[in-house]
Amino acid sequence: MFFDFVYISMHFIDETWSLKQWVINFCSLRRAAYWDAVVEWLEDWGLKSKISTVTMSSSNDDDIFDYIKAHLQGKKNLSLYGQLFRVYSCGEFITQMVQ
């Protein structure tokens, strides 16, 4: 059984217009456990209605993004008219360009 590392962070501007970056969770999980764990962390931190962008390390995680997006849109909690944007990290983008 293989485990992958999951890193969840949030970036926001506070009431004093300072950029804040918080690590919400960092752990190792089985791939099958990603979906429920991420949704649970978002609920625990009260972030389900405040998400606008998800940055992912690779396109192999599209199924996780689709699950999270469907879950959040099903609850009708998203801002920006229910849009959730997926952005790939720079490292993965450069790797795909080289290949």
Automatic annotation (TrEMBL):
Keywords: Metal-binding, Nucleus, Zinc, Zinc-finger
GO cellular component: nucleus
Subcellular location: Nucleus
GO molecular function: zinc ion binding
Nucleus as UniProt keyword: yes
Stated name of the protein: Uncharacterized protein
Provenance organism: Morus notabilis
